[in-house]
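Thought: the user wants the 3D structure for the chain below. I'll pass the sequence to the structure tool as-is, report back what it returns, then summarize two notable features.
Action: structure_tool
Action Input:
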Amino acid sequence: MSELEEKTKAGAEVRVLTSQEMALANDIPLRPVLSAIGTFNYGLGKALTNILSNIIEKENMVRDPFSFGEELKTLPKSFSNYKMVSFDISSLYTNVPLDETIEIILKNLYETHATPPTIQRDDMKQLLIFATKNTHFLFDKNLYDQVNGVSMGSPLAPLLAEIFLKDFEKKHSSSFTSMGIVYWKKYVDDTFVLIDSTFSAKDICTKLSQFHKSIKFTCEEEAANTNTLSFLNILIQKQPGIGFATKVHRKETFSGLITKWSNFVPKAYKCSHPRSNKHNVHTSDI
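Observation:
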């Protein structure tokens, strides 16, 4: 029996590695995407997601671009005198250290959390390992095991990435002030930061990248001539001494086209367009 037959004899599907182009300015890297639906540990991943979702701390997290835009307008006017910087983590999902993240989860569940789960700690650890490290997929007709990192398409992937990053923040937040960081808000792997203008954004980026061997940061500073910076789908304009203004940010790939109502696509997608436009109008004040 071949290795592929051995791993599929229980009737579970084998994931096929596909890719998704990322719209970036200088190149077009491929983001690996693995659909976990139908695989042997998909149901376990869904069940663990329900258990683990309660241990994520919401502090410094951005819920969505619209609420973030509203929060910016409530900041003290003095904050508009700081420099705007966006820090991004390169290839976060594929660099999440699984062993370390599993230990973070166990510590949160059984030492920090007020009500530990009824599952024994060792059993929970084995379930987490089974749901993450015992993963295989096909690429170019070859069978591979994924032994580290998480893949887009797994129900646990966003949760594990968030748990790892929250622990990263807690461990190093005491150093942020001495590095010149005044304000820090994160949406998955993108972070909006206000820094003291006497500090160098590139130096801060270098220091952040030295905190953990698995993650590396890149940075983008505000445009000096317009005092603007794009973050998520928002273009933020700083008005020194006055505050912040926002409007919808369109990427270079934006065509202005929308799906025709008669097209054969789910109705939910069609209905989402007017809702998005409503949010866009609410977000824009530039």
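Final Answer: Structure generated. The chain has one domain: 3-283. The longest helix spans residues 157-176.
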